[in-house]
Amino acid sequence: MLTAEENALVTKIGAGTPMGETMRRYWLPALLSTELPNPDCDPVRLRILAEDLVGFRDTNGDIGILEENCPHRLASLFLGRNEESGLRCVYHGWKFDVNGNCVDQMNEPIDFKDKVKAKAYPTYEAGDIIWVYMGPKDKIPPVPDFEYTRVPETHRGVTKVWQESNWLQALEGGIDSSHAPILHRQIRENAKSAGIQMSTPFVRGGAPKLEVDVTDYGYRYTGIRPLGDKEQYVRGYHFAMPFTQLRPSQIGRAGEPDRTHVDGHHWVPIDDDNVMVWNWTYSFGEKPLTEKERTQEGSANAWPNVDPDNQYRAKGNVRNNWLIDRDVQRTDTFTGIDGINAQDRGVQESMGTVVDRTREHLGPADAAIIATRKLLIEATRDVAEGGTPRGADTTSYYNVRAIEKVFDGALAWRDVLLPEMYPEDQPVGG
Known about the structure:
There is one protein chain. By secondary structure, the protein is α+β, with helices and mostly antiparallel strands. It has 11 helices and 23 strands. The two termini are 26 Å apart. Residues 251-258 and 426-430 have low confidence and may be disordered.
């Protein structure tokens, strides 16, 4: 468990808070590229780390993310006109470029635009995502370059969904590997609702033994499950600071000859009580993803289960009990909530917006969660002392992969999995 002080330390992310200042030292997913599809398209409102922002793509295709309020009289720039390489406030006609420079003042008889600047943050576009950096300009880290950002668009799918809870309980729910064959269990093999089938190694295996190895980017962790008398089922994950997980795709389908898919999440704080959950999947093999895989059609993360016109909020939420179907719970799936990510979201939101970690009772299956909290607290201390938080200045995560396998129980998992988890001879310790 954490003390009340430690819990506040790692959950509060506003400007000036220890965790907030730490978060601002990393590149953050801000918008889907499709939200700003064309030059001079409609601007988009967004909220990250408790800051209200507006994003736009200018005439040249460059992207700006500015503080939402115009520095003149604080009207919303979301109402602005995106025109001729700038965003013009409709109140008095002040216009700002992607770097926040004031380039025109329609209402002023004396020009003083060179003395005015809107708060603007650096951006970077990769992997169907527009990223933003909100920290000190002299400490900008290497750009995000996960393997999924480099594969062809045909081999990648990215979605996002608003979750009504603090960012940390969403992250902790995602990296908790022991819950998956329980919460996501499919009771009937032919159940219509999504879940993990009873026949898969994930469900047939025993309770996992977790091993966590700290690295310079965060840590790698494995869940090792006995599978009968002679085999073992091992899932190898990665956690990249401060909020990214890579996991093997298509839960429980281990042992297939073509295991070239990896899934992942970014849990990006909106404010202290809300988080945007980014979901991505990709193939590093020759075969592209199907359109259904790319769009995550039918999942709880895809339209029509998520409403893009309402800031990507989920249609199943606490106000409608996450659309739980008790009849389905009795016969088909463990929860009666349709969709694996919707099941995660339901239990995490059910804890309240910010969980009281002083009341917990953790066990060996929570090793990854314990490791995460230690690294986050360590990172806040590093930043407070003028240093660089773990993972902010490294590129060693660029080529890591998440792998799962079923193999001889007498073999050491490190000998079998590590070569595939670090396919480009990346360092395996840190």
